[in-house]
Design a protein that fits this description.
It is a single chain. By secondary structure, this protein is of the alpha+beta class. It contains 21 helices and 30 strands. Helices cover about 35% and strands about 25% of the residues. Strands 9, 10, 11, 12, 13, 14, 16 and 17 form an 8-stranded antiparallel β-sheet that branches. Strand 19 and strand 20 form a beta hairpin. Helix 3 packs across helix 5, helix 6 crosses helix 13 and helix 9 crosses helix 11. It is globular. The C terminus is likely disordered. The protein binds one DNA strand of 25 nucleotides through strand 3, helix 3, helix 5, helix 13 and strand 21.
DNA sequence: CAGTGAGCGAGCTTCCGCTTGACTT
């Protein structure tokens, strides 16, 4: 039995640290929190001074019992959870649950997993900081109360199974408000003027822009008229030195943003790949808010940069974390070994590692030195009110960190034209080749991507590195938000060209508003958001988290009692909850769109049990209203009368096949044909409003053919049991249930006997369900 | 899985932050 038991949060960390310490130390992991608030009474005894009711969840029982056993036989137990609020609480829970004797328990902390840091920690133990623990308890209980008192209000007033919380509800608010900004946005247009000049001396063409844009086509036209036949010369050339500085090494949030921009990863994908890299020992911990690098890392980076690129490329830099909410329990995300320029693994492993390596290396490299040049070009025309065109360019004098890495941007304007400029001098005359005035439109603020939402949340101090990805998945799972592509629409714009002595005007079209993997609010998301803002504006305030964080900090410093802080919050909050349950109306979001052009009956939209729908009012008391569900991509807020009328054009009866009627309608999964009891999806290239009898029959026959190829075998012993060909190869189906067929039998699936099938069903059913099975809807 | 939208009532849902897991219908 080891004399010393060290408990850390992560198993990968445990393995590394065990290597640093001698044989007298056993290092184990507790896998994060080992206790949480119980479900009963919301886990808090509110009348009794907010006394928390803790319990060890089922999936942590085994870890706890193992740690208990090891702790019993150890002389000293070292609690080495992270040095932040959550980490301190983990240590306290361990001390409580494992029943640790104070005299043999030591609390140690370190911010980096290096041997000197660990040894220093062991040499400087302390005791558990109860104030910090209390701050965590206040945070935990506040979140539980907010979540478990607000959500039931939504079940009563909006829809069952919905949820609300300090973090998720504000995340949804950001997306709802951004969408409304975009809906309300009116694009303004102006004319941007760009000229192409020719420098005869060097025979070079280059572009220059007029600093001013014209509001109207007439003004732009007048300017081009004034330039017709005018001369142009270089008025002056300005050059000034510039520099660029590398970005700090990655935190969780910046890694998610950059992996999204450069690799197109979702935040969940980024975290899954990073976890793999971490477990394989390639990178440091991936859930961090710190930009700090260890001394050892700084040294190693310097060595690698000097070796690979030369001394002049190295510049040791220490970065300071700007995020106010940062708790900095870990290092920044960096490669464990800087001399490993790449790793083995699949494509995404390699690409993410490459990104992390480059970002960390670049952060320790010299500035890039630039020379910025602006050429002022005078217009020699008495008729022109404008004085000059400007051509700007940038020349890299010293690459520095740009040799390996340049941070991406979220900016969608890609008009920058920083080409190479000719070596001209003041007084040189230039030949004008062409001047183009193009109509440009202002743009609304961009919709959030998963990663840009994380960035915004971090700026607001809402959420933590470990919760960004789960939060984004929660708001999508609840149906508040969808991540989607949208096709754009065509827009006309004017272009006026002066070429030689000719001026021509043309109307062109561009595609605008197309989106890829952006977050859109759903109707239910908007309704819930508006309801929460109306009744719980305090919680929905963007600074609510920042405000309570200040109080948690005071608790952590021992300046404030955690129970009185909770009391002050709970009193008014709970009163509002009760009042809302008693007084607020059910939320339907009903809106009148207008009246039916023929019957004059009112048409409305509202939220129903199964989602948003449009309704034509009943003709009389005895008659029923006509209903139609909204389609994917439509929203109650923006639906027009015309779109609603279109909805009522379905279902269409389009003729007969095999003696029965065929019906065309649009369901949850898109347009379909119903024939007898069967459903047939209508292919994308067909228009469900136009599809005719002949084409529908073709679709039905094609589906039947595919289905006949899908069926591999039916068993005589049980007609309900079938072997089918699916997306992942053959599988068994009985009634509504599916069962796995072992990979070894995929080849000869048609030869599976009834007995074998029964055996496979038993084994497949016995296997523990994966994420899909466990995930509750 | 493919059109539902009445009303009643039982029994269910839900938070945020630490960690990784065994899996894919």
């Amino acid at each position: 039995m080891a004399k010393n038991l060290v408990i850390v949060e992560s198993p990968a960390k445990a393995k590394t640290i065990e290597g640093f310490l001698g044989s007298e130390f056993t290092v184990k992991s507790c896998y994060g929190h080992i206790r949480d608030l119980a479900k009963e009474h919301n886990g808090v005894d509110i009348e009794n001074g907010f006394k928390p009711i803790y319990e060890v969840p089922d999936d942590k029982k085994q870890v706890v019992s193992e740690l208990k056993k090891l702790a019993k036989s150890a002389e000293t137990v070292w609690l080495a959870s992270d040095e932040d609020r959550e980490g301190e609480a983990i240590s306290w829970h361990l001390a409580e649950v494992l029943n640790l004797d104070h005299s043999k328990t030591k609390r140690i902390v370190f911010h980096e997993i290096t041997k000197p840091a660990i040894l220093k920690a062991i040499a400087n133990p302390r005791i558990i900081n109860q104030d910090l623990v209390n701050a965590q308890q206040a945070r935990r209980i506040l979140d539980r109360i907010v979540g478990f008192e607000l959500s039931p209000v939504l079940w009563k007033k909006v829809k069952p199974s919905l949820s609300a919380g300090r973090v998720q509800s504000v995340a949804v608010r950001l997306i709802v408000e951004r969408e409304r900004e975009i809906t309300d946005f009116n694009a303004d247009s102006s004319f941007r003027v760009v000229a192409v000049f020719h420098d005869k001396k060097e025979n070079k063409h280059f572009k220059a822009e007029l600093p001013k844009r014209f509001k109207t086509e007439a003004e732009a036209n007048a300017f081009l008229e004034a330039c017709r036949g005018a001369g142009f010369h270089v008025d002056k050339v300005e050059t000034k030195p510039g520099k660029r500085t590398p970005a700090a090494p990655f935190t969780t949030s910046t890694l998610q943003q950059e992996a999204s921009r450069k690799l197109g990863f979702s935040v969940a994908q980024t975290m899954a790949v990073a976890q793999k890299l971490y477990e394989a020992g390639h990178i440091t911990y991936m859930r961090t808010d710190s930009v700090n690098l260890s001394e050892l890392a700084l040294e190693a980076a310097k060595e690698e940069i000097e070796k690979a690129y030369g001394k002049e490329f190295s510049k040791t830099r220490k970065y300071n974390t700007k995020t106010a909410s940062a708790q900095e329990a870990h290092e920044a995300i960096r490669p464990t070994y800087f001399n490993k320029h790449s790793i083995a693994g699949d494509g995404s492993d390699k690409r993410l590692y490459d990104l992390i390596w480059k970002r960390a290396i670049a952060s320790q490299m010299s500035d890039a030195a630039l020379e910025k040049t602006v050429i002022h070009i005078a217009i020699d025309s008495a008729a022109s009110t404008e004085k000059e065109f400007l051509a700007s360019g940038e020349v890299i004098k010293f690459e520095g960190f740009l040799k390996v890495y340049l941070e991406g941007t979220d900016d969608e304007n890609e008009d920058a034209d920083d080409g190479l400029l000719p070596d001209v001098k003041a007084g040189d005359s230039l030949e004008m080749e062409q001047i183009t005035a193009t109509e440009k439109f202002t743009r609304a603020a961009p919709r959030y991507t998963e990663a840009s939402l994380v960035k915004k949340l971090e700026e607001l101090g809402i959420g933590r590195p470990s919760t960004y990805a789960p939060t984004i998945s929660t708001i999508q799972k609840r149906g508040y938000v969808v991540k989607e592509d949208r096709v754009g629409r065509e827009r006309k714009y004017q272009e006026i060209i002066l070429s030689g002595n000719e001026i021509s005007t043309s109307t062109l079209t561009e595609n605008t508003g197309a989106e890829k993997s952006k977050l859109f609010p759903t109707d239910i998301g908007s309704l819930v958001n508006d309801f929460l803002i109306e009744h719980f504006d305090g919680i929905m305030d963007y600074s609510f988290t920042a405000n309570v964080e200040k109080e948690f900090d005071e608790i952590a410093e021992g300046l404030k009692s955690w129970t009185s802080m909770l009391q002050k919050f709970y009193g008014p909050f709970h009163k509002t909850v009760d009042k809302t349950i008693d007084e607020a109306d059910r939320v339907t979001g009903e809106r009148e769109l207008g009246v039916h052009p023929e019957s004059g009956l009112p048409i409305t939209v509202r939220m129903g049990r199964y989602g948003p729908f449009a309704q034509i009012a009943a003709k009389s008391e005895d008659d029923k209203p006509t209903y139609a569900s909204l389609r994917a991509g439509q929203s109650m807020e923006t639906l027009t009368l015309e779109e609603a009328l279109d909805l009522f054009k379905m279902p269409r009866m389009i003729g007969e096949f095999e003696g029965t009627e065929m019906k065309v309608a649009i369901g949850r999964f898109g347009p379909y044909i119903q024939h007898q009891k069967a459903f047939y999806s209508i292919p994308k290239e067909d228009d469900p409003y136009q599809i005719n009898q002949d084409r529908a029959i073709e679709v039905i026959l094609a589906k039947r053919k595919a289905d006949s190829e899908k069926l591999i075998k039916v068993f005589n012993e049980d007609q309900e049991l079938q072997v089918l060909n699916g997306r992942w190869g053959p599988y068994l189906k009985k009634g509504k249930d599916n069962f796995k067929i072992p990979k070894t039998r995929h080849e000869d699936a048609a030869k599976i006997t009834f007995e074998e099938a029964l055996d496979m069903m038993e084994k497949s059913a016995a296997a523990p369900k994966g994420r899909r099975g466990k995930a509750k809807k």
